[in-house]
Amino acid sequence: MCLAVPAQIISRDEMLALVDMDGIQRSVSVMLLPDVKQGDFVLVHAGFAMQLIDEKEAEFTMGLLKELAEHGSLPE
Amino acid sequence: MAVYPNDHIQKAAAFFTKEIDRLSKRPVRLMEVCGTHTVAIFKAGIRNLLPEQVELVSGPGCPVCVTPSSYLDTAIAYSRQKGVIITTFGDMLRVPGAKSTLSEQRAAGADIRIVYSPLECIDIAKNNPMKKVVFLAVGFETTAPVAAATIIAAENASVKNFFVLSAHKRVPPALKMLLANGDVNVDGFLLPGHVCAITGESPYHFLAEQYHIPAVVTGFSAIDILQAIYTLVKQIETGEALVGNQYKQVVKPEGNPHASRILDQVYGKADAVWRGLGKIANSGLELRSNYTSFDITNDMPIDVPNQPEHSACRCGEVLRGKITPRECLLFGKTCTPEQPVGACMVSVEGTCAAWHRYGTWRWQG
Ligand code: SF4
Ligand code: SF4
Questions:
Q1: Cβ of B63 and A2 within 8 Å?
Q2: Neighbouring residues of B227: CB distance < 8 A, sequence distance ≥ 6
Q3: Quick one: which H or E segment has residue B156?
Q4: B342: phi > 0 → left, psi -120 to 50 → alpha, else beta; which?
Q5: According to the model, what pLDDT value does residue B364 have?
Q6: What is the pLDDT confidence band of residue B59, given thresholds at 50, 70 and 90?
Q7: How far apart are CA B290 and CA B267, in angstroms?
Q8: Residue B363 has what pLDDT?
Q9: Which residues of A9-24 are buried (b: 16+ CB within 10 A; e: fewer)?
Q10: Distance (Å, whole) CA A13 – CA B292
Q11: Which residues of A are less than 8 Å from B64 in CB distance?
Q12: B223 and chain A: CB distance < 8 Å anywhere?
């Protein structure tokens, strides 16, 4: 039930935003995340944007994976 | 957005598996709290990758599974009242009450509608001004703010015929209860990423501070989960206990304060009954006095007789990680995803359903 999926904000009109969810467009409420703007990635659950997906952190995680793949160890 | 390249994933998975194997010197039990983790663990075959001594058990991580049958009986009773439309997330439909399910009531003519978002209920209410629209408000801290926001939206739109039948639950008190009772023997927790997206990680600090049990907030890919298991095993072997966050792209230390504020505006803490676990202090949410006009049990009180749950179903023990589903005599026989006896077999994220769907290698052999 608490399944949440990533989506990107295409446009925003007051408390509603149009998002792209894996190619499907959908209108979601931004009542729980009022500061989002066009282009942001968000996590969507039950028709609401729940949280911003922090791209820097996502890249950081990817960097760790890359490091692991190349050196076979994690930086301490 | 970041997508992990395939060869990196495979190499990282191999690294974590090898390290877990190398590090773990004694039997450990790790509990995944969230049902979405349970399903991800099965789908990725993670149990197969782990050494014998690392055991994964499922906890009370699905709001559908922990909703008591008395709640379903009440929802069913409302669905039989004249002029009532029940709205609900789809997974509630087949959850067994004492004698019936919402799905059976629907087949018998009750007006029960599945919604993707509770916001749809406001339109249903506007389109049916002579009826009462009752949303079955269940879910943990991920879902509860959504119901709270919908109530505020209904109030702003002066919609007077929208109500909730509320059974929201909070995860931390349930974990505390499991540990305080001493009846689960768990060495580490995988914490539910989407619940923590709202609450942050601080409500779980007590695990390390009071019980010296490490815990990691984690995401839902195989690599996220393997990394979390690695972190836990490493801490357990060195005697450390910290509450960590490996899902920083989504879970901020403070969670989503705006959503928490909206939740807090509409709901206050209350005791709640969990299927199989009984009453847990402060583990539920009830509408605050300003919002009780949205409570259907206030607007239209009805008497629902108390009936016992199916006696042979062992969901209670499954939810506490005390037995695996296949230790239940009904598992796969009388109780299947098509014909569930207990709630853990209903939701796709329910532990019994996950074992049934993906766990054949285990229960056949
Ligand atoms: S409903 Fe599902 S996603 Fe939510 S906690 Fe359950 S099992 Fe996790
Ligand atoms: S297998 Fe069915 S009856 Fe047994 S514990 Fe699970 S849900 Fe209950």
A1: yes
A2: B12, B16, B218, B246
A3: helix B144-156
A4: beta
A5: 42
A6: confident
A7: 10
A8: 42
A9: beebeeeebbbeeeee
A10: 31
A11: 1
A12: yes
Q: What is the pTM of this model?
A: 0.90
The answer to whether the CB of A74 is under 6 A from ligand 1 is no
Instruction: State which amino acid sits at residue A5.
Output: V
Task: Say if residues B77 and B302 touch (Cβ distance below 8 Å).
Answer: yes
What is the A2 CA–ligand 1 centroid distance (Å)? Answer: 5
Interchain contact, B192 vs A2, CB within 8 Å: yes
What's the pLDDT tens digit per position in B251-310?
Answer: 999 999 999 999 999 999 999 999 888 899 999 999 999 999 999 999 999 999 887 766
Its sign, for the CA torsion B173, B217, B33, B219, is positive
Distance CA B41, CA B35 (A): 10
Q: Which long-range contacts (CB under 8 A, 24 or more apart) does B267-271 make?
A: B267/B144, B267/B148, B267/B166, B267/B168, B269/B170
Burial of B337 per CB tally in 10 Å (0-12, 13-18, 19+): middle
The reply to whether residue A50 touches residue B142, judged by beta carbons under 8 angstroms, is yes
The answer, yes or no, to whether any atom of ligand 1 lies below 6 A from the CB of B193, is no
pLDDT band (50, 70, 90) for residue B362 = very low
Pocket residues: Cβ below 6 A from ligand 2? B 313-315, 318, 325, 328, 330-331, 335, 341-342, 344-345, 352
Contact B340, B320 (CB under 8 A): no
Question: Which of B119, B199, B249 to mutate: most A Cβ within 10 Å?
Answer: B249
